[in-house]
Amino acid sequence: MSEAAAIEVRGLRREFRVRQGMFAAPRHVVAVDDVSFSVPAGSVLGVVGESGCGKSTLARLILGLLEPTAGEVLVDGRRLGGMDRRARARLIQPVFQDPFASLNPKRRIRDIVAMPLIAQGAIGREEIGRRVAEALDRVGLSQDQGARFPAQLSGGQRQRVAIARALVLRPRIVVCDEPTSALDVSVQAQILNLLAELRRELGLTYLFISHNLAVVEHIASEVAVMYLGRIVERGESARLFAAPRHPYTRALLASVLTPEPGLGVPDVGLGDTMPDPANIPPGCRFHPRCPVAVPRCAAETPRPATDEAGLVECHLA
Ligand SMILES: Nc1ncnc2c1ncn2[C@@H]1O[C@H](COP(=O)(O)OP(=O)(O)O)[C@@H](O)[C@H]1O
Ligand code: SF4
Ligand SMILES: [Mg+2]
């Protein structure tokens, strides 16, 4: 291998045991099931799939906020497992869906943005002030806005604060987990454009998560489609949109061609049987909802097949 990938995950798996009542048997959830991929430096991997398919679990594993049950994560060629927290923070940062939940309401914007710098220790006050001002400027917030509190800003401005905080340590990699999903449709495009611009200017690598395929179309160089914890298709963005190979990708794509794709969770047109990660169907896990399933699909698990167009996990592809 020449240059190390910005992110590499190998055989990543994460299980949860959930007890819903004192007498209920614990449910065993496999949220991420043997996922492997790599993201070259400077590119954007879009990860899409319905709610509950494991996207946020994958994000938290890559950010080191969750321990894998199996497999490993390498960031910039280094194992995440043994990495010091402060070194990790300088390398990889998150932007989450709900900026209100992730911003301390009692602190001023400039103090919120300064937190990662303060957590590093040994950075002088002047330097902190200078870098906070630079980060606010980058995301299009004024110094005046820096003196306000989160409640005094709009949703879009709060997400700009979260982005400034993610960038203040000048990381190389940003994990964006549904960064525009909590925003009004009109504001979503502004934040998407800002993220795209920052990536170009700063040479960042993104893992960009959305439940909506339309959101990742313009920002992602490559797209991975998740279903019940597995990546069922992956490929270069233009190819995946022009010629989807997995029936689930085709359903997702059809759903975003409906009149108002920016609103809420897209209707994937696959009926009411919502997938349950505590109860994964045998054979192909998509078979109960697959419009083109054949008898073999219920009996035999498809293996991932890789070629120059990417990866697909389907008997018929
Ligand atoms: N901390 C947790 N404890 C128990 N179950 C969890 C936890 N985090 C996620 N899960 C379960 O894992 C599955 C995937 O969740 P998540 O990664 O949040 O999916 P997504 O982000 O795609 O909506 C869901 O069934 C969810 O309930
Ligand atoms: S393996 Fe069968 S059920 Fe699964 S996606 Fe392909 S056709 Fe559908
Ligand atoms: Mg999520």
What key phrases describe this protein's structure?
317 residues, alpha/beta, Rossmann fold, eight-stranded mixed β-sheet, four-stranded antiparallel β-sheet, 12 strands, 33% helix, globular, binds adenosine-5'-diphosphate, binds iron/sulfur cluster, binds magnesium ion
Give the CA-CA distance, first to last residue: 29 Å
- H/E order of the elements? EEEHEEHEHHHHHEHEHEEHHHEE
Fraction of residues in H or I helices:
25-40%
CATH topology-level fold name: Rossmann fold
Average per-residue pLDDT, rounded, comes to 92
As a percent range, the share of strand residues is 15-25%
Radius of gyration: 20 Å
Bound molecules: adenosine-5'-diphosphate, iron/sulfur cluster, magnesium ion
How many helices in DSSP terms?
12
Low-confidence stretches: none
Sheet of most strands? 8 strands, mixed
* CATH level-4 homologous superfamily: P-loop containing nucleotide triphosphate hydrolases
How does the overall form come out from the CA principal axes?
globular
The CATH class turns out to be Alpha Beta
Provide the domain count.
1
